[in-house]
Amino acid sequence: MLSHDLLIVGGGLAGLSAALSADPGLKVGVISKVHPIRSHSVAAQGGINAALANHPDGADDTWEKHAFDTIKGSDYLADQDAVELLCRRAIPAIYELDHWGVPFSRFAAGTIAQRPFGGAGFPRTCYAADRTGQVLLHTLYEQAVRHNVTFYDEWLVTDIIVRDGKLLGLLAYDLAGGEIIPLRAKAVIFATGGYGRIYLRSTNAYINFGSGIGMAYKAGIPLKDLEFVQFHPTSLYGKNILITEAARGEGGYLVNAKGRRFMEDYASKAMELAPRDIVARSIQTEIDKGNGFEDQYVHLDLRHLGREMILKRLPGIREICLHFAGLDPIDRPIPIQPAQHYSMGGIDVDATCASPVEGFFAAGECACVSVHGANRLGGNSLLDAIVFGKIAGESASLYLRGGPPEAGGDGEMEETARALMSRMRSIHERKEGENVFQLLNRLKRLTSDTAGIFRDSPTLRRGLDELAELREAYRRVFIYGTCGRYCQEMVVFVEFEHMLEIAEVILLGALKREETRGSHFRTDFPKRDDAAWLKHTIVTRSEKGPAITYRDVQIGRYAPQERKY
Amino acid sequence: MTFKILRFEPQKDEHPHFQLYRHEPKPQDSVLEALKDIRDQQDPSLSFRYSCREAVCGSCGIVVNGRISLSCRTLVEDLASDEVVVEPLPNLEIQKDLIVDLKPFWEAYRKVEPFLQASGDVPEKGHRVAERDMEKVFQYITCILCACCYSACPVATRDERYAGPAALAKLYRFSLDPRDDRPFSALDRVDGPDGVWGCDTVFRCNDVCPKDVRPADGIEGLRRKIIAGKTKRLFRRKP
What we know:
By secondary structure, chain A is of the alpha/beta class. Chain A is built from 15 helices and 21 strands.
């Protein structure tokens, strides 16, 4: 049987960062359902935050100020000790990335360039034009090649095998081979990314089903703060491709159909550079009030930045507009609307990335430490993936140094693999049933309609009722495909089960949380309520369904205050 | 509309064959969106690669009506044709339907040592790099490793040992980077017919590159560097 000391699931930034920081003496494997450089990290555009203080306007920036902005941006739900760790480690992390080959844009002095981003007091966001995610992912992959990391490309992990609280290993569907294969591991790091594609409109890659989060939940690992879903203010109308916050950081305006820079009414100081929850809500409010174009979108206007600036700083955005909207942002404003973008919540881990199950770690978007709380600041997700990916690799190595007992259980793992295969076959042998792609579309509509930017109790309850129906329908699913190799239907079939769990935990957490905080806006409870709700939602799967408990937020030197921008 | 899609399951079929599907795409639909709809609504057994759907992940290189391109960025209406013929990238083995085996492409990539080799420890405040020098590599870092150039290259087609445009352009990107300290001898491995001298200079790579990387510029650049380096060596040897 395939056997590793450490298996890392996910080949995006967090997974590769973990692989590079793991003890080189360990037998490490990285499993990814796509080739690692096809991971969604590649699509990040605007940048990565670190208080380098390279910009003249940010000469007295410090990691403490970065921490404060992050905590305030999180609407005080982030754990302050974890945020401080993130912001402190950001600075050496950027220099290391630079040393590994990330081609960061430069200032005239030759230092790493920094640009303004939303919710930040200083220009703090390091970047490479508007292709920051791409250069980071490619660079980490290059370093992984240099260090001969073992990859299982195009393998989809389907199950975590835990027996009596002890981790045995994983099952994976090898897409090219068409088989379910057990892999033994003493430690596992999940770096499986977000679940954007359970929503109808998402900036995420088509592959972002987030099944890693649901899989961990199914294996008995709690989920934290899943009701906090980030909607990015500016996705290209129609295709919902991300239009980076850097477009506003470089000076772009948001304009409604009346020709007004409407952010004046919502965040008169920060204007377009208020945090994402506030800007997304403002745009949606304008559209709902009838101030949008075709009741669907508003304009992001870059024309006043001039041709040269757009070509130099935002070439990728121009390319996206030319190819996917047939317009040139040098001459015309970009039609934009909010779309699901990021998950603040995720697998419950502490600041060492450890979960309650021994040997199981998680990092990046699938995990919740929590450093983003109720709303993540732009430029902090790449940072989270890099820093906590690294920490996860270090923590897992430390755990393995203690010499965890040989897991064994080969027979049990093989049996579980066989059981999954025969379940597939029995579903395939059905003569009729539900088409899984159609169920997926129903789920997307459901989450978009009931757990979107604005929420209230009756709608969330309806969401939960409809979800129960969908769960029933999934029991009747049948697989049409006749071939087991490269079978996307099988991928969706496997992942869909986990997506149902994710949707339920989002809806349930959102229903119970009777307040408004960050991205979670309850129209029936429109105020933040620190007395009752300054706490994390923890959901654990039980025989009787989801069991909810709450955990206090770690408050440090920054006392919660009203959030004004 | 008719979609004529190449199908092949090497474990069952003797030869690839075309299968016809009737499908009416929505306005502005990409070929990728059309393929997904056909799969979801008509034939879940149809296999093809995709991920980001915004031309940055490099998964979906494909041939549409004879042209190599990314399926996510090719809009059906722009084809101005009632028939859309979809085939896998040429010159690579088909694994299933539109999915090809990129092994030779990745092997070539690995061979050039595609990673920055900066000597010493991480400088305390980062490397100092002139803005203009950093921007010189920007042309090459837009490469998404989609292998469109590799499969279009006539040299790679006839000689599997040839490194191909993407890998060579990648090496050039590092040789341009002021932070890179690889010795000049690192270019020796591409100083031959499997490397920069294999290029036919017909520029098919530049034509098909969806990101305007112009990989042939990189091959040209490496040739110049190699010649300049050799000339320098020659003079240094003289007393």
